[in-house]
């Protein structure tokens, strides 16, 4: 499929596999290659896991890093190595990741340009789809098990086409405004443009070494890529993924930062970026802003994750290590409220709806088994309900009275709660595949059906009637993660992530 000499990284997936004990604690490089490179890259620049370099670890003390290596990290796929490695071996690995490599990794705009591959020039492919389907009710399903994706018919629930993707996609694919093109970002910085009509990749470019996610402008002209390494934002022309500008992420004193996340804010005609290592939010207008000048908004704490109200006037964000959320008035350019959010809310997976005449935000929690409901007029938590464990994804649709939330972490990972949006109570708990993780619900265009993933190599997408909760169909897939409906994503449905 790929017509370039550029190849996929051939990392070995080690998560969950038995790890042989090392005999020589001094052979730290060997330890890293054996136990860590499969997820973090042989040069520590990141793959499925983040980069492990001093400039990427500014918020993690070495003592904490030793704890993470030994005992894993909550709400991530980082495993524990305390039963496989000695204390001295773990300490030596921590020393390694806080040591700069002999040659500092770099990725310049010239490197980006050199990496660009155009498979089909603009206008060279037919404008008519090669299949019959409702183009607004299509899904892209990402299958992490073998680094593939499936184009799925949302009316018949039949796969239209299955194709290979880059390694370790991250951050969720994004659509062009008309839904014809979908853009993927991989952990190792590859951005791919795929033509859904012709089922062909159009162009690719490597925007960074370690990427967090991407966003597409509301007018479809630009894509922005937020990166861990280098510490920058890369703006691309969506026509062929040519680099337009590289924005180094640093404060006025020159302190640099990773990018936590980047989104588009349609009513504002701008991109919004949260920064991992600086207490700032950045707004980058793309309408009549040819230089892509940055507007800086200072906040009280780091923002590892954030969410917008439906008007995109307010941003609510939280730090991984804080019990409070911050509400930022984007018009005024300042923080206006503090929200009591215990644990680790997953705001990027939050959803909104009208409850008793007021807009509310509901968010799962990555550390505690609870859902928080927040009144977005007062920014007060109006209710918390207990779940069977920490959750990762929460989803709904304007045409259903129910919200679905998984129990992604812990022993009850095979459960899925259904909440009545009118009462804020759990009314049903499903167990579609005992012992296997149930996660990430997405709805069809009309909201009549809910599609759920079974995150397993021998997994499936399970289709449910969204009103009766009856199972309609199972579509076998290899560890399907996210499912992304064209209509819901391009219309910014309040029931899904943006």
CATH architecture of the domain at 345-498: 7 Propeller
Number of strands: 33
Percent strand = 35-45%
Outline the biggest β-sheet. Answer: 5 strands, antiparallel
Report the top-level CATH class of the domain at 345-498: Mainly Beta
Q: Quick check: average pLDDT? A: 90
CATH topology of the domain at 345-498: Methylamine Dehydrogenase, Chain H
Which strands sit side by side, in order, in the main sheet?
Answer: 1-8-7-6-5
Percent of residues in helical segments?
Answer: under 10%
- Described by the principal axes of the CA atoms, the overall outline is globular
Unreliable stretches, pLDDT < 50, 5 or more residues?
Answer: 1-25
Walk me through this protein's architecture.
With 498 residues, the chain is mainly beta. Among the domains are: 1-105, Orthogonal Bundle (Cytochrome Bc1 Complex, Chain D, domain 2), CATH 1.10.760; 345-498, Methylamine Dehydrogenase, Chain H (7 Propeller), CATH 2.130.10.10. Helices cover 9% and strands 38% of the residues. It is built from 6 helices and 33 strands. It has helices at residues 28-35, 37-40, 62-71, 87-97, 109-115, 486-490, and strands at residues 117-118, 138-143, 148-153, 159-164, 174-175, 181-185, 190-195, 200-206, 210-216, 222-229, 232-237, 242-248, 259-265, 270-275, 280-285, 295-298, 305-308, 314-318, 324-329, 334-340, 351-355, 358-363, 370-375, 380-386, 394-395, 402-406, 416-420, 425-430, 437-443, 449-455, 459-465, 471-477, 480-485. A hairpin with a 6-residue loop joins strand 22 and strand 23. Helix 1 (28-35) crosses helix 4 (87-97) and helix 3 crosses helix 4. The longest helix has 11 residues, at 87-97. It is globular.
């Amino acid at each position: 499929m790929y017509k370039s000499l550029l190849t996929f990284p051939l990392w070995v997936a080690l998560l969950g596999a038995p790890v042989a004990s090392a005999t020589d604690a001094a052979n730290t490089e060997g330890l890293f290659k054996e136990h860590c490179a499969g997820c973090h890259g042989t040069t520590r620049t990141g793959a499925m896991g983040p980069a492990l370099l001093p400039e990427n670890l500014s918020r993690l003390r070495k003592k904490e890093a030793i704890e993470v290596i030994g005992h894993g990290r909550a709400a991530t796929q980082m495993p524990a190595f305390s039963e496989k490695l000695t204390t001295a071996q773990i300490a030596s690995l921590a020393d390694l990741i806080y040591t700069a490599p002999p040659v500092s990794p770099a990725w310049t705009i010239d490197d980006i340009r050199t990496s660009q591959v155009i498979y089909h020039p603009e206008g060279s492919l037919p404008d008519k789809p090669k299949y019959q389907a409702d183009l607004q009710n299509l899904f892209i399903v990402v299958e992490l098990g073998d680094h593939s994706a499936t184009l799925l018919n949302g009316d018949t629930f039949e796969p239209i086409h299955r194709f290979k993707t880059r390694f370790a996609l991250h951050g969720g694919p994004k659509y062009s405004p008309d839904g014809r093109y979908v853009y993927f970002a991989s952990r190792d910085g590859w951005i791919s443009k795929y033509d859904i009509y012709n089922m062909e990749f159009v162009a690719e470019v490597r925007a960074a070494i370690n990427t967090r996610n991407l966003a597409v402008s509301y007018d479809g002209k630009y894509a922005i890529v937020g990166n861990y390494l280098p510490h920058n934002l890369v703006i691309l022309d969506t026509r062929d993924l040519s680099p337009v500008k590289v924005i180094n992420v640093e404060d006025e004193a020159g302190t640099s930062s990773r990018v936590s996340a980047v989104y588009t804010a349609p009513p504002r005609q701008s991109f919004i970026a949260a920064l991992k290592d600086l207490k700032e939010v950045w707004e980058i207008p793309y309408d009549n802003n040819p230089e892509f000048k940055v507007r800086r908004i200072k906040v009280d704490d780091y923002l590892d994750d954030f969410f917008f109200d439906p008007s995109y006037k307010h941003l609510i964000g939280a730090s991984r290590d804080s019990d409070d959320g911050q509400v930022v008035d984007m018009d005024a350019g300042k923080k206006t409220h503090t929200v009591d959010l215990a644990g680790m809310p997953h705001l990027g997976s939050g959803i909104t709806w009208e409850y008793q005449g007021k807009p509310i935000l509901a968010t799962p929690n990555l550390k505690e088994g609870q859902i928080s409901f927040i009144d977005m007029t007062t920014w007060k938590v109006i209710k918390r309900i207990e779940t069977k464990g920490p959750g990762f994804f929460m989803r709904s649709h304007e045409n259903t009275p129910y919200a679905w939330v998984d129990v992604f972490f812990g022993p009850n990972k095979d459960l899925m709660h259904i909440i009545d949006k009118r009462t804020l109570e759990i009314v049903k708990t499903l167990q579609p595949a005992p012992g296997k993780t149930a996660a990430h619900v997405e709805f069809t265009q009309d909201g009549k059906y809910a599609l759920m993933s079974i995150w397993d190599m021998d997994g499936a997408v399970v289709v449910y009637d969204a009103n009766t909760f009856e199972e309609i169909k199972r579509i076998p897939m290899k560890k399907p993660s996210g499912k992304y409906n064209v209509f819901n994503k391009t219309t910014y449905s309040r029931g899904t992530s943006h």
